[in-house]
């Protein structure tokens, strides 16, 4: 009896952790945690519902992909009033590219939440993007379009969607920043160090200083990405001054 | 002075007609008629806004296509709990096929509302589907996702989305109905007549009688389509009786 109680307790502790992790990622309380459980269940678990339908995240990917498509479409429509249909389609496919979705899933450490019979190290890169899509699908079922839209703004559009960069006007914020520092005779320093912490994947952190003052910090899965992220953040700090020298921005 | 007043009056009468026509199609009052004006302005009008951006329906098509995609995705996700990702994708592409969208646009007579310098007879079939997509995009901008979803349910999903037919289980409701009538020794009659009315395109109407009683009516752009539509309606009237003989339905 005591044993069963212990098992149940530890089970509900695991479920409690899952709930908290999901809440932290979402920024709000899930109403029906079952949608999110499904979004992180791999087919290898071989679970079925009462009607015999498999419970795993694959169908949620389809739903999440559609929601991402429409939220990004509506953002581009508003933000790019001069872009024609072909341009809007091209921009959207850049934003929801497999590579980009994988990066988003990695940044949110979604793989830590997966239930699977396959060891996590055996998955390819695509699992990150698939989990991200499934998570968006679960948000839609749990809370509807508005919450889904908010989540995509917070996690995709605000941090990553930069129309200037997508258009290829800005290839690298790092080179833009270095160029500006050199021109303005400012001393810059990228202090990069390994910072994997509890993550399963290697991570790097960077502190970017200009004239011996830290102006931005970033963390990512490669040195190059961390530097670019920090540069972009610094760019927005000095945007007005940098733009004076680059009227096309 | 009187002339100008007459012109303005007749102009506002035209605008008033447009408003009423849109309201009839939507089933609700548009908040900002400008979105709908845009959805029915062809590029040949060569109109630009204050910033020099062209005003026509092409960008709205992109938006409407994305909204159709996500509403249909969420419908299929719920309605087809056993369908996997590949199946859901295939079903969606059947529903939002160019051919199907053209049919929807034709049924709503959307071409009657177009402003264009090109004579309406010179457009190909795709203008119907394009206008339908643009209309959905305008609804999204005017009223948001919920109204967009309602409109798509009313005009696309309820009247046209029949998973049994899409899956190919039912190829033709006409043959299904005739088979059933023959088996049950019922007399059926398809009374088809041309019924173009004020439309620019030829239309046909059909009255379907079973045992000398009209059971359904339909109207479409070909005899075959009108008969199929009437058969489908009759099928739903007799569904319980027909299903007894066809346990797979």
TrEMBL record, chains A, B:
Q: Which InterPro entries match?
A: dsRBD_dom, RNase_III, RNase_III_dom, RNase_III_sf
Q: List the Gene Ontology MF annotations in alphabetical order.
A: metal ion binding; ribonuclease III activity; rRNA binding
Q: What is its EC number?
A: 3.1.26.3
The UniProt entry's GO biological process terms, in alphabetical order, are: mRNA processing; rRNA processing; tRNA processing
The main location class comes to cytoplasm
Taken from the record, one Pfam family name reads dsrm
Q: Which UniProt keywords apply?
A: Cytoplasm, Endonuclease, Hydrolase, Magnesium, Metal-binding, mRNA processing, Nuclease, RNA-binding, rRNA processing, rRNA-binding, tRNA processing
Which intervals hold domain DRBM? 172-240
Classify the source by domain of life: Bacteria
The annotated active site, in chain numbering, is 65, 133
Q: Please list the cofactors this protein needs.
A: Mg(2+)
* Reactions accelerated catalytically: Endonucleolytic cleavage to 5'-phosphomonoester
Q: Which PROSITE patterns does the UniProt record give?
A: DS_RBD, RNASE_3_1, RNASE_3_2
What subcellular locations does the record give? Answer: Cytoplasm
What is the annotated role of this protein in its UniProt record? Digests double-stranded RNA. Involved in the processing of primary rRNA transcript to yield the immediate precursors to the large and small rRNAs (23S and 16S). Processes some mRNAs, and tRNAs when they are encoded in the rRNA operon. Processes pre-crRNA and tracrRNA of type II CRISPR loci if present in the organism.
The record describes its quaternary structure and partners as: Homodimer.
State the protein's name: Ribonuclease 3
User: What would be the name of the gene that encodes this protein?
Assistant: rnc
């Amino acid at each position: 009896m005591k044993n069963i109680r212990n098992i149940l307790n530890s089970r509900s502790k695991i479920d409690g952790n899952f709930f908290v992790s999901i809440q932290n990622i979402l920024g709000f309380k899930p109403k029906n945690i079952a949608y999110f459980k499904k979004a992180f269940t791999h087919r290898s678990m071989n679970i079925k519902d009462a009607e015999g339908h498999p419970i795993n995240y694959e169908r949620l990917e389809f739903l999440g992909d559609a929601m991402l498509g429409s939220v990004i479409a509506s953002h581009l429509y508003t933000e790019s009033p001069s872009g024609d249909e072909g341009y809007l389609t091209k921009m959207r496919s850049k934003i929801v590219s497999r590579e980009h979705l994988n990066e988003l899933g990695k940044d949110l450490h979604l793989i830590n939440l997966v239930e699977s019979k396959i060891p996590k190290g055996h998955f390819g890169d695509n699992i990150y993007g698939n989990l991200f899509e499934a998570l968006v699908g679960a948000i839609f079922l749990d809370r509807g379009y508005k919450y889904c839209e908010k989540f995509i703004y917070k996690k995709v559009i605000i941090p990553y969607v930069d129309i200037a960069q997508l258009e290829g006007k800005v290839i690298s914020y790092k080179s833009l920043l270095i160029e500006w520092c050199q021109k303005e005779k400012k001393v810059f320093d990228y202090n990069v160090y390994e910072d994997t912490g509890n993550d399963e994947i290697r991570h790097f952190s960077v502190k970017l200083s200009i004239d011996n003052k830290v102006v931005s910090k970033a963390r990512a899965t490669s040195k190059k990405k961390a530097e670019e992220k920090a540069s972009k953040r610094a760019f927005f700090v000095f945007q007005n001054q940098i733009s004076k020298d680059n009227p096309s921005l």
